[in-house]
RNA sequence: GUGAUCGUAGCUCAGUUGGUUAGAGCGCCGCGUUGUGGUCGCGGAGGUCGGGGGUUCGAGUCCCCUCGGUCACCCCA
């Protein structure tokens, strides 16, 4: 807090601590499960790359032009922290030349040097998939379906899938020119803040939020009218596939997305539960040509990225995906000299029973408080009496003050006894669930 | 990079027109006699008022700078 005397997490980063991390673990597991079921394998690639890897991906985009987190190492190598997932995967593909189709996924941090705000950080965490080696439109459908089903499995309902086609590389270029010329003719009707985009990056004008621009855009030429017949048919096939899988989508001709390596299909899933400026919870597209540009064989590819922070924000907004707070099975309370706690917790853990204990020889009252707070289901009590009698007292911390909440068992039967008690289901109203803390 | 707004105990916040030893709730620690948590009662610890400079007899309260949080623009997960 005091900037001069203490350290804090760098700007735009934050610590994720228990119990919130339990929700992260559950989310990642849900994602991994969904994509592994579809045959995607985990890739762990470096968090930083030669800066050229990312520059190759999009010279004109802000992501690499002004938001790159780059540095020079002691060997004078110019490196950059990964700003997005696809470039690293493509580099790895070119380097290792695996058999295609190469279907992979990742769960990794991304870095962008930009001012933080709601749902946007300098370090954020992305879950994503990439599938390289096939131009089949059904692969587009598969990738989108996997992403859609993943979000649905979290309980998200207030989301919409937007899809578009940028056509072939040539279609995209032609349309960009066409749009540029049209915008230049209507420059005065454009919101002043959007005018400087026209020369550099006319496509950017399409996702402007300004009223004047939006009004003008209603009459602007649409990419849909510029697609070559092949690209148009291909897009129909993708939309038809989504329809067959009962995944509702909205054709959105203004969806161009920020990375300019996209060809053909681009898509985005937005959450209407988020009123923040950042409502995109998952986005991606096809990037035929990117692999070749990276120096590899001409290989088509498609993928998406989804930000964990934003997905969780959307879950909070909809009140879904609460995760159960996992306490240990047994909490050992030792009011003798602590040796019993030391030995018993270890024995329980070795037997597969999650166990914790208090330290520092605190009073029984204090230890019971800690046991309660820990979320443990059972307290295993060792006092002078138990020690002398060779027994242990087992108390069910969720059973209230009922008669049978507590039993004393011989020490050498404790493992069997605990296994038996823990096997019985606990009542649902004692389950603790947790959403992330509202802030 | 631009703009707005905020910055008081671990957390959420009060702090009169600048005036003596800075408060509350929650949390934390201890106690309520003989070994039992979750309720209740009592007590306690914990703050260089983000940091630096200035104005003033005197500043948490005014001014400047700086760092940080939040939100928006740009752009994006």
Short overview:
With 439 residues, this protein is α+β, with helices and mostly antiparallel strands. The chain has helices spanning 20-36, 51-57, 62-65, 85-96, 137-153, 169-185, 192-195, 197-200, 202-205, 211-217, 229-244, 290-293, 308-318, 339-350, 364-373, 384-389, 414-423; strands spanning 41-42, 48-50, 69-72, 78-81, 102-111, 123-132, 159-165, 249-251, 263-271, 280-286, 301-307, 323-324, 330-334, 355-357, 378-382, 391-396, 406-410, 433-434. A hairpin with a 5-residue loop joins strand 3 (69-72) and strand 4 (78-81).
SSE inventory with pairings:
Elements: H1 20-36, E1 41-42, E2 48-50, H2 51-57, H3 62-65, E3 69-72, E4 78-81, H4 85-96, E5 102-111, E6 123-132, H5 137-153, E7 159-165, H6 169-185, H7 192-195, H8 197-200, H9 202-205, H10 211-217, H11 229-244, E8 249-251, E9 263-271, E10 280-286, H12 290-293, E11 301-307, H13 308-318, E12 323-324, E13 330-334, H14 339-350, E14 355-357, H15 364-373, E15 378-382, H16 384-389, E16 391-396, E17 406-410, H17 414-423, E18 433-434
Parallel strand pairs: 1-5, 7-8, 13-14, 13-15
Antiparallel strand pairs: 2-4, 3-4, 5-6, 6-11, 7-9, 9-10, 10-11, 12-18, 15-16, 16-17
The structure holds one RNA strand of 77 nucleotides.
